[in-house]
Fold these 2 entries.
Entry 1:
Amino acid sequence: MAQRKSRDDRRLDLIEAARRAIIRHGIDGVQLSHVAEEAGLTSGAVLYHYPDLSELLVEAQHAGMERFYEQRLRQLATLTDPVEKLVVTIRSGLPTGPLDPDVRLLNELGGAAGRNRVYGVLLTSLYDRQVSMYQAILDTGAALGVFRLSADSVTIARNLVALEDAYGYRITARHPLIGPGEAAELILSYARAATGNDLNH
Amino acid sequence: MAQRKSRDDRRLDLIEAARRAIIRHGIDGVQLSHVAEEAGLTSGAVLYHYPDLSELLVEAQHAGMERFYEQRLRQLATLTDPVEKLVVTIRSGLPTGPLDPDVRLLNELGGAAGRNRVYGVLLTSLYDRQVSMYQAILDTGAALGVFRLSADSVTIARNLVALEDAYGYRITARHPLIGPGEAAELILSYARAATGNDLNH
DNA sequence: CGTCAATTTGAAGAGGAATTCAAAAACTGA
DNA sequence: TCAGTTTTTGAATTCCTCTTCAAATTGACG
């Protein structure tokens, strides 16, 4: 029998297991047994904690988003120079490679968000927070005279997040010419034009 | 009994039915019965034409991509002015609204492309063709002296397609502030910076 | 009109997945 | 240690989907 755990611990385990199962089988392809297998439990045990699988999936997606976003904020918090902040943030929004689990998970939401309002709201809220994050960097840089913005900071921020999203899809789809490095350069090309700064640090 | 049709006609019907079914249930959630219902047939009839459902799904995705791309080329062919071409092409890459079926279908591929090589290849080839399309517009405009490009035409083209993709997701996810018009303006903001042209025509 | 081949149906069966639940196992606290 | 509670299992049941296939229907062609 699998090691017995407290309610809270087990729920956390299951959220992790669901994340992996979603990545492996797709948000619309996950089955109870997939989650159970990832967690090393039986279907019955999963059902004991989450009588409704779809609730667990939403929690897993939510947790994945939060983790992704907080990780970015944490990296940001270690820096002060706006140029460095911008460059590091662009990199932290891209997958490390085609298998990056955080981005793979987020990508699963893209299609589902059009069908499922809950996923739409989740994805939209992540987008908006990332836009705010970039906007803060851009505004600070502009205030310090380091950046000369070519448009509203919100416009540039929206485009930066949009570019990250899109290249995340390209990389996980294994575009033969666009990997993490190339994608970063492409986004930086825009960032340079938008900030009037050559972004070398 | 549903009207009997020739092999070719029925296969086209089924591809259309599969497109609708994918949009409704997700690429990993579609079932034989969904496709049959969309086509007004029984599961047996679907299986008679496509013994393997996944083959039908690939064909449906392929057909959807081709339709989307050819539609854009057709709009492009009616124009000569590079500025007009660029503006019209940007608009034609965005969904008409959250329910736009062509974009909804493409969005379904995003997550699946990370798991399924065939979908990855399909999506990558669409991306590359769209990049070429933009590149031709940019190069022509540059040659005519209308555009003063801020970077490689391939870099700008890649970013333009990436922005379209990403805003397609935002719009189908029903972002409350970003609709087709707003997305077009956001992309145009980048296009202006990248071409040095204010893109009024 | 009648024959033939192609298409479609509907029912039957095989295989899975979700759900339920009684029993077992594992932890808790006295 | 032991009683009580929580967690997990595993088997039984139900539900649903895919698959198969014989029979029915349709349309084409002579």
Entry 2:
Amino acid sequence: MSQFFSLVYTIVKKIPFGRVTSYGAIARYLGHPRSARMVGYAMNAAHSQPKVPAHRVVNRKGLLTGKHHFSGSKLMQQLLESEGISVENDQIVDFEDFFWDPNTTLPPFEIEV
DNA sequence: GATATGACCGCTG
DNA sequence: CCAGCGGCCATAT
């Protein structure tokens, strides 16, 4: 497993309950501001990592772009709603209010192991 | 070994 | 303000 993937999983696992973040935010936190796609790809591989709440990771617009990759297209939305996040038309309502930025919440760069 | 694709993001027209 | 295109990095074929 690439270290990049491990880092992504580590960050995603640190997402607080009822909070969401974006691929770009994670990528930027890992030092790869242009590798947002890789974060998404890592999420794809995250299927082997049940401990990774991929449903809390959405795109910059708060759109559930990856919901199609879940068991059911509605599973992702259900999980988010279960956490108190309102989802409408595959988009998180008040996304900015639920947004969790690791760059401003977690330490600069000294996590994982 | 090279080409194509992808759960994205940002800029330019 | 809305729409379209390219870039970037890693994985899969």
